Each structure stands twice: as structure tokens, then as C-alpha cells.
Predict the 3D structure of the following.
Amino acid sequence: MRSSALGSRESELSRRSFLALSAAVVSLPCLDRMASMHPILLGLAGDNPFTLGVASGDPTPTGVVLWTRLALKPLEVDGGMPAESIELEWVVAHDEALINVARKGKILAGADMGHAVHVEVEGLEPDRWYFYGFRTRSSQSPTGRTRTMPRVDASPERLKFAFASCHHFEQGFYSAYEQMAADSPDMVFFLGDYIYEYAEKPKTDEKDARVRFHVGPKLQQIGDYRRRHAQYRSDPLLQRAHATCPWWVTWDDHEVENNYANLVSSLKDVDPIAFAQQRANAYRAYYENMPLRPSAMPKGPDMTLYRRGQFGKLLDFTVLDTRQYRTDQPNGDGHRQLNDAALSPLNTILGARQRNWLESSLVDSKATWNLLAQQVMMGLVAFRTKTEGERTYSMDQWPGYTDERIKLMRFMADRKINNPIVITGDIHSNWVNDLRVDDRDSRSPVVGVEFVGTSISSGGAGTAVPKTLSNLMADNAGLRWHNAERGYVRCTVTPKTWKSDYIVVDSVLKPNGSTLVRKSFVVEAGRPGVQVS
Ligand code: FE
Ligand code: CA
């Protein structure tokens, strides 16, 4: 629907299409009621601006954020949308037919926000499921399902959530999301690499295993970032997973560019001003495309994404941002020994402000479990080089910031933070790590557990038993399991136990991949360290 043409199109509409559209609207009773209160200006039949689905996020006990973004043509830089704003009606209801309305309102979707809207709904009941939807004057969105968190003083018996990361569009199908939606989790954490920034590249040879193709140049401009988000969001299984429950999202590097650190590009000879502009474009498009609170709206190249939430007295969690404030990776971005550069106390992956906020959040917490939802592996996992005896660590992950990593673990041990659990994405493989103050000292006590989840699709075909597995297990006392299949992790949390099920997909190179639970791990409250079940 192009609002600029509304007036003329209205008069052009035949009586027949008017009746057809009216019938479609009537089939959604509550929206019909809303419509009867406001005169309907009809767009053209067949114009569907809800091609990117709906989403919700950042729930509290009384509210949640609802999201949608209008795009008539998702693969066009402007989404095929007019420059004018479009009025949307939104509704939150107790039933899937959206009849029994809990809250409703109107909001404008403007071109300045890529025609995305972020509705902060308040006044809902704690610990309840709701349905929601949007409509323009001529179209309905798909209906989403969302929920509020329990009251902060409630004692929930169970929380079921999923976490995922890295869904490279070209490298595989999103079958994992079909299973995730079927699990019907209470919420989802997405831990980064929601899009990848690479340019479209034609298929050149038979070895190219890509299952579908990016559109557009390497991302730098706002329109290209918006279009890439739209391309990813047009996937029906990703839409289904978003519509299933509220998501808590954070980014890693590829939402801007591979392995960037703060305002430093990992590419050679990049003008810092140009990179700041690129980061501003990327952050803006990220905000627009995620179910985030308007308080997260970026200011130029800065956007506050770290935040906290809670699920009654069962779980407190922080969602971290280890990209925006970090110092540049020491020794380059690859695997290096833990030399003076890697161990320097000047290196930070959180930045002072976020670290102080994290520590006070942890000290404030009275919950049974404390979850840190973040991007890059916190375990100090040693890799073997070909030179015998040498151990290297990933400089793009927490080992590049070992001093800060050790101080954070020591803080959690000294302050006796309740049952710390870390969830992580980024490396397209599954890892389960017992975390010590310094993982290199296998005699020191375990403080917490890290569950690293593999990619949804990035990396393409996976491996159940990586070749390096036996060396890794021999060299790392904290490493309990490792695997490189595709999938996600499903967690069931009760006052007594934490269970993580590693769900894997048989193949992401074909649609409709099937899933199974490859392995499950349990942590008992009050007893740090993982048990294999
Ligand atoms: Fe990734
Ligand atoms: Ca990454």
C-alpha cells in the first residue's frame, strides 16, 4: 500500500474488490471492530506489506515490545515502500483470533525507520501468554504469540528457553527454527551474527555449497543493511520462531563487519571516520529490525544493547555486548599464545562501564540462577599448533582479554554469586566448559558453567566428531564436550537443576532437515560444574 496514492486508489477501487477486502477484514473480528471505529482507507488488493513477519522481545512482568516492519518488496533497498508514513493498528489479545483484546493502539511506520515499528506494550498481567497482530488499512499481519515474565517475587517452578546464533543465509536452511518453534519455549536468546555483511557473489563452481544467495554489495550503507535484514527476515522458519515467543537479542561482529572491535575495522586501511559511519548505519538497521525498546535506539555510532531481565526468583540474566566497547584484539584476530599482549590488564572486552554494571547486577541478584547471555567463548580453551608443545587461544574471544576474564570469574567466586551460567554463540560449534577462575589451573575449583551453542546454519555441513576433539579434551581440563553439528540449545531451568539439550540438525544443505537431541547436560544448583546425563 502506498499511502501517497491512497486517495486516488480509493476512488479507483471497484465495488467488487471493496467487498473482497471487506470480507477479509471481517474474518478477523476484533480488527473489524477496530476498523469500524476508524474509517477504512483501502490500498490495492494483493499488496502485502507484512512480508517480514512479526516479533516480540524484552518482556517484563507487565509488558513486552512488539515489532514489525513493512516491506512490499523486501529485496529492494527501500523495501518497495513509499516515503510517506503508514498508520498501523496493533492489538494484544488473550486469544489467537484476537477477539478478546487486552491492549490496542496505533503507531506510524515511517521511512526514516525503514518502516519498522517498536510498540512498548504496558499494563499486561504477569506470567501470561498473549497473542498479537498488526494491520494496515488493507492488510493483516501474521499473528504472533508472546508472554510476560512472572512477578519479580514469584517462585516459578520451570523455565524453558532456547538459544541460538549465526544463521548465515547462504550456507544453510533454517530447519533448526522449525524444531525450536515446536518446542514452544518461554523465550529465546539470540547471541549474534543475525546477518552476514558479505557481498552477493555468483555461484562459480560445483564445490560452492551455498543453498541460496545474498543480494547486494558488501554492507556499508544504511539501505544495504536494511535490505540484508529484510532478506534474512523473509525466511518463513525464522519468522515462525520469532512469532512463537519473545526474544532477547544481542549482536556479535557480522551485524556490522567480521571481527571488528569497537571503532576498529579488521580490514586494512579503513578510515576510522568512514568505519564510524558504517557502524552507525549497521546499528541503526539492527535497531530497526529487532524487537528492542526505543530506549535502545542508537545515537550515531553508539547503541546501548546490554541490559538485564529476570524470570521471577528463578533466574536473573544479563545480555552482554562484547563488541562495541572492546579494545582491539591483541596479536591480530587469530589464534596466538597467551603472551604479554593477550594478558595485558589494559585489554577489555566489556568496557569499564558495562563491567561495573555487570558486577553490580550480579551482586544485586537473589535469584537461584545467574545467566550471562553473550557472544564469544569465555572458556580459556587451548588449541594445539603443529609445533609440538605450543598452545594457542582465540584472540577474538575472551582469551584475548584474559586478565578481565580472570577478574570476572574471581569476582563471581569471591562474591559467591549464585550458580553462574554463561551462554555463548559465535564459533559455529558446540562446547560445554566448566569455568574456573583461570581454566589453565585444573586444580582450582569450578565457579560456573559455559554452554556454547553452535550455529543455526553458518558453516554449512557440520561434523559430529571433529578431528581435533581428542587433543582438545586432553589439553583442556574444563572442556566437557565439543561437537560441530548445526542446531541450537534448549534449556530447562528449575529451582534444583539446569538442563541443556543440544539439538542438532541432520543437514542444513537441504530444506526440512530433521533434528534430534545429540547430548544433554545437567548442572545442579549449589554444585558448580556440569554433569553429563
Ligand atoms: Fe557467525
Ligand atoms: Ca562472530
In short: Confidence is low (pLDDT under 50) at residues 1-45. The CA atoms of residues 162 and 490 lie 4 Å apart. The two ends are 54 Å apart (CA to CA).
